[in-house]
Design brief:
By secondary structure, the chain is of the alpha/beta class. 36% of the residues lie in helices and 19% in strands. Helix 7 runs antiparallel to helix 8 (187-196) and helix 7 crosses helix 11.
Length: 247
């Protein structure tokens, strides 16, 4: 998804209506492409910072919105942009995105690694939306699910069909709201989750035993009243974090 698939303006308007921009003092838009969402955002007359990697699109956007005094464009890769730095002047900024789906995971991680912006509304491939919102014990629940949900709550806001794009993509889409909590990102916990979910068919003990003492693992699971044959996908993000701290 992204700049090669133009979203229908009616859908763009619905997304903006769901976002409640009036409750925020600034908007950061990632990957505006042709400015379909941007032209609705500027109507709120709020400070708007757009981050666009493509130089030609950046030039076109600058020209299109040059008369809006609150508009600012950063021509750079968003994953290299310090989100906390660009939102320093604002008390309650919101992050919006209709990124290419290929970088949706890195972008969500980029979001939860910062502490300033609390709300991220983005268009995701339906499969990815299912994954990041998946509950423990379900097929879609994995390390990314647990990591995102440890740092934020995830809510699906609206399904978007392929017919809402030109040209229609081969996948369904979903708009999600990720609301960050105050937990500081823990790189070691992120690595721990990758180990826990490394082989989904293996038990948690078998995934962890090459990295921690077997006795420590079983003692920790027993203290949590968990069967030693439990699998990672059966534990909630909180339980996984408690296990991480114990080990």
């Amino acid at each position: 998804m992204g700049q090669n698939f133009l979203i229908d303006e009616n859908i763009a308007q619905k997304i903006i209506d769901l976002v409640h921009i009036d409750e925020h003092d600034a908007v950061i838009e990632i990957g505006p492409g042709g400015g379909i969402l941007t032209k609705f955002i500027v109507l709120y007359n709020k400070p708007l910072v757009v981050v666009e990697l493509d130089k030609r699109l950046a030039e076109a956007l600058t020209k299109q919105f040059k008369d809006h005094k609150h508009f600012m464009l950063i021509n750079n890769d968003v994953l290299k942009v310090n989100l906390e730095e660009i939102t320093k002047p604002y008390a309650s900024p919101i992050l919006l995105s209709n990124l290419p789906y290929s970088i949706s995971s890195p972008m969500m991680l980029h979001f939860i690694k910062q502490n300033k912006i609390k709300i991220f509304v983005c268009m995701l491939q339906k499969e990815m939306a299912d994954r990041v919102s998946a509950m423990p014990g379900t097929k879609s629940y994995n390390a990314l699910s647990a990591l995102i949900q440890w740092h934020a709550s995830v809510a699906k806001m609206m399904d978007v069909s392929p017919n809402s794009f030109d040209p229609p993509p081969a996948v369904n889409s979903c708009v999600v709201e990720i609301q960050r909590n105050n937990r500081v990102f823990n790189e070691k916990f992120a690595k721990f989750l990758k180990i826990c979910f490394a082989f989904k068919r293996k038990t948690l003990v078998n995934n962890l035993k090459h990295h921690f003492l077997l006795g420590s693992i079983t003692n920790s699971l027993n203290a949590m009243h968990k069967n030693i044959n439990v699998r990672a996908e059966e534990l909630s993000p909180t339980e996984l974090f408690n296990l991480y701290e114990s080990l």
